[in-house]
Amino acid sequence: MSTHTKDLRNVVMLGHSDSGKTTLVETMLYEGGAINRRGSIQGQNMVGDFTDIEHEKGKTIYSHQMFVNWKNNKINLIDTPGFDDFVGEVVSSLKVADTALIVLNAAAGVEVGTELVWEYVEKYQTPAIFVINQMDHPKADYEKTLEQAKARFGSKLLPLQYPLNSGEGFNQIVDVLRMVMYEFPKEGGKPEKKPIPESELERANQMHNALVEIAAENEEGLMEKYFEEGQLSEEELAKGITIALAHQQFFPVFIASGLKDMGSGRIMGFIDDIAPSPSDRPKRVMVDGSEVAYDANDKTTIFIYKTASEPQVGLISYFKVLSGTLKAGDELVNADNGEVERISQLFVAEGKERIPVEQLEAGDLGVTVKLKSAHTNNTLNAKGLDRKVRPMEFPESRIRKAVTAESSAETEKLFAALHKIQEEDPTLKVEIDADTHEAILGGQGQLHLDLIKQRLEKEFGVKMEMKNPRVSYRETITGKATADYRHKKQSGGAGQFGEIHLQIDNYYEGMEEPQGFSIRQKEIEDLPWGGKLAFYWCIVGGAIDSRYIGAIRKGIMAQMKNGPLTGSPCQNIRVVVFDGKMHSVDSNDISFQLAASGAFKEAFQNAKPQLLEPMYRVEILCPDEATGDVMGDLQTRRAIISGMDTEGHYQKIIADVPLAELDDYGSTLRSITGGKAKFTMAFSDYQLVPGNVQQELIKHYAEQVEE
User: Fold this and answer.
1) Which residue has the higher pLDDT, 601 or 114?
2) Is 205 helix (H, G, I), strand (E, B) or coil?
3) What percent of the chain stands above pLDDT 70?
4) C-alpha distance from residue 271 to each of 97, 148, 305 (Å)
5) In this predicted model, what pLDDT tens digit does every residue of 35-66 receive, in sequence order?
6) Are 261 and 189 in contact (CB under 8 A)?
7) DSSP strands (E only) in 84-206
8) Has residue 492 got a pLDDT over 70?
């Protein structure tokens, strides 16, 4: 029997690494009766974190789908990694969640991993519940953590609970929604309900009033009833705060100790009673602008948010039913490639366990196996439907490595394996650099790429070597120069002859036309590698026949593709061909190609040649106390600091940094900030390379050519 849409709750667990998400999930499953004993990270026996690599690292690496039945509702839980190296798992899980449960570490406060996930919570406009976890930690500080959370996430955060005794003796929670105190036994579990102590009533009432105001904005007559009775029950406040939560008008804050099983049952009850079902959420907007409601009676549409693979099973597809009722045996059409897919088996996931079901209604999360050509971000529809969900956008790579197989014989096997992993992990980029011809692997951090390397060796039996990639420089000129170049070759019979006189200078938009020439033809071309070539044909009187224009352009382009300084592509150059000579017998296309190439190279060397390097805009979020160290490190990387700002209790540093100086930056940043910083990087532009660096690069290139 499937669960009705209104009885579903889809919750994604978010938070910084070590905030205790996975332990809290385990406790929630235990409280709901999904499991009869709680596992532990040390025991490697938890419902989540079931993969070998997670057991080895002792950390969540992948998102894991689980569920628990609570009263009349089914609560789907997706646990996610806290490391920002695996942010792709967070992005995909948030796409299908209707509520985010953001877990804060009471001892560490708001950490950078939470900052990262909050950006996506806001982007997806997901209702959010905060839990200040690990209240039993010796250094737990509820007030400080709450203050930090409000400073970063805004005044919409409203505590529903507060502790009477933080730290190792934690066992009492004042609940200002139900206006009761929960007192837990030393070993945790089911609490005893007690009256709120007299000394706490004033504070509790003030906090309760704030909840009444929030609820009253969405429910008429509540305020009057409150004034009459002095207090309202959770049932009376339920409709108003449900609407407020669903529309992100407020973010409730709970407290808990996931490890000691204190407070998790109350959180489950709130999710069950107050958190929005899929039918309470806005309609899903498709690529074409149309909207789809979570309606079990509509035709079926599902969205695949995650793909994984298992030995002996193959691809496993995790999806959300967006509309209709999906049944085992249904045939759906992939909106992305037109392929028909038969859903031969239908499951719900409880960690690594897959439980067969006959059908799933709109809003539910499910699993199927062995789809032929369906992958992450694909929409599958009942025949006759033309719906396509807006695809998830994953962050740009923050680390790039050049990769090679251990032996040339394994190259094909390596790239087949990488493309297979890429199907599961959209944050992994595999490409061939058009300039350096290296195979480049792009990821979210060193830990991310190390995991890929480990998977290749263990799962696919392929060894991969990683090294820092060569930088794709550009060459240009900052001056003006002319050159006369004659190509002449005689070897019996018809020879080769071509002579070209040309002028080159730096091209930029809106510049004046070249002076002193009679312009016959001109063409401004966008170059494949970026920048422009402005080509002017100014030959008067037939010194060179116009039929050789194509050959001359070809010779210039050949030299620009592999520039004279370092073999890097040239850009933003104006070439004026104004004179030359030809021979009635010996002149031909190849002669003028070679003459043009030689003339361009000679002129280039005399026109104040300049190397350009790719610059990246880097944005760093770090604690205030680490700002000096981060700035100092950036200065050693030739960075240009373009801005500083405050974001919550973090410092935001914006800098333009040469790509050549960003090798292993993520690892360095993690080291100097104790893992309390995050950064993003995106290509900005090409800028002039300093003279001393340019001389070193030219010298290095000359040595390579000589070898």
Assistant:
1) 601
2) helix
3) 99
4) 13, 24, 23
5) 888 887 777 888 887 777 877 887 888 899 99
6) yes
7) 99-105, 128-133, 157-159, 161-163, 172-175, 180-183, 192-194
8) no
